[in-house]
Amino acid sequence: MKNNYNRINTFIVYLMVTFSLISIISITECTPNHDPCPPQYAEALCLNGGTCFSVTIMGSDNYNCICAPGFRGWRCQEKDLDHPVNQ
């Protein structure tokens, strides 16, 4: 019986983490009014012409990048082969 409680508790924690991540992704992708990053982050965080923005989630500042066309990844560090830049 105790093993079943452990499985249920583990599943509940998994659901809580999953829904938290979904909320963060939704906020960062759908919120049109992002605050700009502080200069020390803006210069170092985003690569390949990406634009740094910050979103406050549950009292914590989170820094992300909006990538220039042709790039993707958390820091715009990867070439997006599905959308190459015309040269």
Structure explained in plain terms:
With 87 residues, the chain is an alpha+beta fold. It has one domain (1-79): Laminin (Ribbon). It is built from 2 helices and 5 strands, in the order αβαββββ. It has helices at 2-30, 39-42; strands at 35-36, 51-57, 60-66, 71-72, 78-79. The protein has a 3-stranded antiparallel beta sheet, covered by helices on one side. It is found in: Secreted. GO terms for molecular function: epidermal growth factor receptor binding; receptor ligand activity. It holds the Pfam family EGF.
Quick structural overview:
The chain is of the alpha+beta class and 87 residues long.
Helix content: 25-40%
> Which strand order spans the largest sheet, edge to edge or round the barrel?
1-2-3
Poorly predicted tracts of residues:
none
The CATH class turns out to be Mainly Beta
Examine the coordinates and then state which fold CATH places here, giving the name of the CATH topology: Laminin
